[in-house]
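Progress report, Aim 2. The chain analyzed during this reporting quarter is listed below.
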Amino acid sequence: MENVGETEAQDVRVTGVLLAAGAGTRLGLGPKALLPYRGRPLVEAIAGRMLDGGCREVVVVLGAGAADVEAAAKLDGCRVVTNPDWESGMGSSFLLGDQATKPADHLLIALVDQPGLTEETVQRLLSRRRPGRITAAAYRRRDSPGEAELRRGHPLLIDASLRQEVCATVTGDAGARGFLQAHPDLVDEVDCSDQSTGEDVDTPDQLGLLR
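Predicted structure tokens for the chain:
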């Protein structure tokens, strides 16, 4: 007999896709997936939060240093796929992740270089999902408390009915950006500023986000 948590996860039918293929060239520290974060590889921590937040499965898309990442990270409850074309940009990893999931599932797209992603953020997005729409985390920077405008970021929760349309617009390193810009009326932004700033770890001066 399934427990309540398992039943709810199946009813919601959300699969996470964790984009973790980049080489981290600007940082110069190897693949971002292997950045140390609170005693374990960053990819392991982020995947765990996606599962704990309500994703019934997480597809982890690797690329640069894939063998090293798989050897170092414990990705229990995840399915790992490797993108041989990772150098072409995030778009190819996005599409590979989409192809690796069940067509009827809603997709939660997350980036491996955002250590601020929390279990609560995932739960909040799942609880706010509306049919036929995209639910996006949005943030105010903590160093700009007076800033009124929210900035859309990740994760993105893509309703299953929109997956084909979104993927048709994915190219290069843009991910779903083209679709989001063309269809702002289909996007629900959810304030997650109390959880993090939503920043990526792109440059050495952002390594403090890994504390």
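The chain has one domain: 4-210. The two ends are 40 Å apart (CA to CA). These observations will guide the mutagenesis work planned for the next reporting period.
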